[in-house]
Amino acid sequence: MKRLLVLLVVAVFMLTACQSDDSSLAVIENVPNHVQEHIDPTLQLQSINVKDGKYIVFHASGDVVAKLDAVDDTVIVKIDVNGNREGAAKQYVYYLATGVNHGTIDVHIDGKSKAFDSVTVI
């Protein structure tokens, strides 16, 4: 009976450890149509929330580099704009999947925190 209980406890710990708490940020080259129809090109920063994650849409001139960091329960999306900032703005779309312990999203553009211009749920 003790062995069965020990095996059960070990199995529970292993299953708990397998639950991913990692967050990820991926560049989206081909935006799904159901997301694209909600993108407003006049907004600089937009969040489009779907069932399993969020699409972060950023419009800017120049080259954009995005990185992800996590501090406690906050996911920090760091967006840096490099190069020539003149000319037409380009659309950059990222898919953010957050871990179970990350409830807050903070976006930093060139080191400064910025609120979303729009948040849409689809």
Describe the structure.
With 122 residues, the chain is an alpha+beta fold. It has one domain. The chain contains two helices and nine strands, in the order αβαββββββββ. It has helices spanning 2-18, 33-36; strands at 24-27, 45-50, 53-60, 63-71, 74-82, 90-97, 104-109, 112-114, 118-121. The chain has a five-stranded mixed beta sheet, with no helix packed on it. It has a four-stranded mixed beta sheet with strand order 4-5-7-8, with no helix packed on it. It starts with a helix and ends with a strand. The relative contact order is 0.24. Residues 2-20 have low confidence and may be disordered.
Regions with pLDDT < 50 over 5+ consecutive residues? Answer: 2-20
What is the number of helices? 2
Structural class: alpha+beta
Average the pLDDT over all residues and give the rounded result. 84
Separation, N- and C-terminal Cα atoms: 50 Å
Topology:
Blueprint: H1 2-18, E1 24-27, H2 33-36, E2 45-50, E3 53-60, E4 63-71, E5 74-82, E6 90-97, E7 104-109, E8 112-114, E9 118-121
Question: Gist?
Answer:
The protein is α+β, with helices and mostly antiparallel strands and 122 residues long.
Characteristics of this structure?
four-stranded mixed beta sheet; globular; alpha+beta; five-stranded mixed beta sheet; 122 residues
